[in-house]
Amino acid sequence: MKEDIARVKTDKTVILAPHDVARELSGNVKPVKPGDRIEAAGVKIEAVPAYNIDPARLEAHPKANNWVGYVLQLGGNTYYHAGDTDHLPELDRIRTDVAFLPIGDGGYVMTVDEAAGMAKVLKPKFAVPMHYGFFPGVGVPADGERFKKAAAPIEVKVFKPVHPFANR
């Protein structure tokens, strides 16, 4: 992760991260927790909760860690990057043009069907599946197409990763 940040970081870069991650980073780092609202470089950002509620996944992303997803307002559009989370009732209020939702086989994040259900509640213009097909326990590459079918009538954009985690 630090290598990825170094590739895009400039003197003006503001890094938002949960408190435990922020402690490991340097530069203009702003620790955030769910509910925080910040504006950086003209982008309005709200940190929203990201944790697991499914009993089988409680230890993967516990609520007590105060990890987050982000709602970004940029260029007249709203983007929701869920991070690693389950479909939490408090997220149903999010209105977004694009929703980036984690999918997998249910080991760490939502199953394909759970994420599709969340997409249908959020009703974005587009949903984009993420976090799948790279590691055992996090789904297979075909899950993107499965999500696309399950999330209908929500329009889904499935992208092929340029830099899969497994190749780093």
Distance between the termini: 10 Å
Helical proportion, percent range? 10-25%
Q: What is the overall pLDDT average?
A: 90
Sheet having the most strands: 7 strands, mixed
Secondary-structure class? alpha/beta
Rg from alpha-carbon coordinates: 16 Å
Helix tally equals: 4
Tell me the total number of β-strands: 9
Overall 3D form: globular
Low-confidence stretches: none
Beta fraction: 25-35%
Oligomer: single chain
Order of strands across the biggest sheet? 3-4-5-6-7-8-9
Task: Sum this structure up briefly.
The mean pLDDT is about 90. This protein is an alpha/beta fold and about 170 residues long. Helices cover about 20% and strands about 25% of the residues.
What does this structure look like?
By secondary structure, the protein is an alpha/beta fold. 18% of the residues lie in helices and 27% in strands. It contains four helices and nine strands, in the order αβαββββββαβαβ. The protein has helices spanning 2-8, 19-22, 112-122, 143-150; strands spanning 14-18, 28-32, 37-40, 43-49, 68-74, 77-81, 98-102, 126-130, 155-156. The strands form two sheets. It has a seven-stranded mixed sheet with strand order 3-4-5-6-7-8-9. The longest helix is centred in the C-terminal third of the chain and has 11 residues, at 112-122. The chain is globular and about 45 Å long. The relative contact order is 0.11. The mean pLDDT is 90.
